[in-house]
Amino acid sequence: MSGRHRRAGPPVDEPVPSPAAAAVVTPAGTPAATPAAIPAAAPYATVLPGAHRTRVAAPQAGLGSAAEAVAVVPGPPPPREAVREQRRRRSRRNRVVAATVAGVLGVLSAVGAWFVLGGGDGQGKPASAPARTQTTLLVQVLDAKRETVAAALMAHDTAGGGTGYGALVPSSLVVTAPGQGSVSFAATSTGGVPNASVEAVADALGVQVDGSLQMDASALAALVDAVGGVDVTVDKDVTQTQGRKIVVVVSAGPAHLTGRQAAAYATFLGPQEAEQLRLARFSSVWQALLGKLPADPAALDATVKGLRAHLTSSMSAGRLDSVLEGLRSDEAGQRLSFDTVPTRQLDQGGGPSVLVVDTTALPALLQAGFAGSMPSQAAGPAVRVVVQNGVGTPGLVPKARDRLLKAGLVFVSGGNADKFGYPHSYVLILDTSDTSRAQGEATARALGLPLSDITVTDQGQTLADVVVVLGADFKA
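Above: the chain's sequence. Below: its structure in token form.
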């Protein structure tokens, strides 16, 4: 992305903003409001016998990436003058924290932090989770620039009679994408990184996403034509510019749409219209299309295979057929519902606002549609872990992400730590309670780190259950 700079030194996992840059970068590269620095910590308490005794300090302003909530800097106690100056700075920062905590919540939600549910069973060992019956599929429609203009995270659950759910994802929502940092969701399909959109949505919502189905407008049109067209109620005339004229390509009212008409309606957004209107149009076409898919599995397989040249999916052919068949059945049985990922505008203090996940409303959507795909360590509330690269070796944070997700923990990218060269990792927890201790132990085990890396920090609320700074003892 333009406007992002890499620091000098070893290659890193995420693009690093300059000191004046923000935690979120808009699609145009405009910096957003920077989260307030967390007050410096007092010496931490040792969690386990043999754990380190080190002082934990606040991150330097502007270093690290978007989700950076905490950074650790081992070192000797500062001299008295430095302590007094630190206290004065802390006082100023605390006033800023009180005024901007809502903004910090929004910024973190934009890069994957959704809601602190607590977590852990107090024992440090996860209980067996029930077999997962839900499969999720991210459906995207791309424009000529390969930007995502319409998308829905679909879920089909085989439990009981089967239920389906679709969460519409705004293209202007700010997310964190592998190799891109904080970008609009529309841009996640343009970076050339496989499954970037899948990982961005999974981290933003805190759910497991099993695969993706990407298509451009012509592929959507071909799919609609393959099922004989769809019946929808068009809410307003769909217009296109042809030469010097603006022509109506789909008229408002109940209509049977051909593939070309359906694609035009599903991606149409008139001047001054809110993006939610385009998402509503896409959902009406997509829902009608699902209802027209062949009920016979062999016929459905033939239909999908016939369009493989136009569609791109990270799922195997058999699994994609199974999900589409399940969603078709859900729609036929009127068990398929849609909603939009809850969002809010984040005011950047004079700059253009950005769209971020509404962390207050998100848990209700997850429970309604994705309860079967939420990471659950110890079959309880998910433990959310911010991870930073404290070594400088590229690729460490993504590898840590894979291990955390496999262990049922929620990953949040913290980008790079305040510096590189940490000889060992830090697994920072908030207190010495049984719950925090269990969360720290589960995180350390998932990452293959020694329990002696677990440390309590007095830096206060980090908006995460555990913060990890990867050091040299993390074996990728």
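The CA atoms of residues 177 and 200 lie 5 Å apart.
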